[in-house]
Design goal:
single chain, 211 residues, alpha/beta, Rossmann fold, 6 strands
Length: 211
């Protein structure tokens, strides 16, 4: 069977339990051979990260320690300039020419898809696996523009009936945590064990991040 590689990008500033739940869910639902967590270096449509690239990578490594099939991929940090997802998928396609790539993203990211650099080209490289959030809805203008009706499949495994370009919306996934919420909780000196893994919480404390 052709290998299946998930690609889950983000600032991970910091990585939190929502990220980890999403990663594990994608691995399970899609039967992925690996899921690559890709921390963004220089974002195109948002403010830079509060923590350094090195610190975010270290927190990711701590968060996934002991997990199966989930790895950290630093290619956006190692690449010069703004981090464009289409360039990341292109480089992965060059590296894994026979693999089927699945881009894992949250509903908010999906609804902003039309603002992404060369968004039309994303479908030439990968499938999309979209994760739901509480009270979230797919935006009609996005669905129409990307021809969602022609791309949507009714269960995760159907993505792999074709090599790329299909979309699955995981309505039954809902773990609504954001990195902004975590940073605000750190500032407020609130309990963090429901938001962060123990190792990441200890790292943030030891390095006095997000104060």
């Amino acid at each position: 069977m052709t290998s299946r590689i998930g690609v889950y990008g983000g600032m991970f500033d910091p990585v939190h339990r929502g990220h980890l739940e999403a990663a594990s869910y994608a691995v399970s639902q899609l039967n992925l051979d690996q899921l690559r967590l890709v921390p963004c270096s220089i974002p195109n449509h948002r403010d830079p990260a509060s923590a350094s690239s090195e610190q975010r990578v270290q927190m990711l490594e701590l968060a996934i320690r002991g997990t199966d099939r989930i790895i950290v991929d630093q290619r956006e940090i190692d690449r010069d300039g703004v981090s464009y997802t289409v360039e990341t998928l292109k480089s992965l396609r060059q590296e894994y020419s026979e693999a089927q790539l699945v881009m894992v993203l949250g509903l908010d990211s999906f609804n902003s898809l039309l603002q992404w650099h060369l968004w039309q080209d994303l479908f030439d490289y990968a499938h999309l696996f979209v994760l739901n959030r509480s009270g979230g809805e797919l935006l009609p203008e996005v669905l129409n523009k990307i021809e969602y009706k022609n791309r949507a499949v009714d269960r995760p495994g159907r993505l792999f009936d074709q090599h790329h370009g299909a979309i699955y919306f995981a309505r039954d996934f809902n773990f609504d945590v954001s990195s902004t919420q975590v940073r605000e909780a750190v500032i407020a000196k609130e309990k963090l064990d429901h938001l962060l893994s123990e190792d990441v919480e200890s790292y943030i404390e030891a390095n006095q991040l997000y104060r």
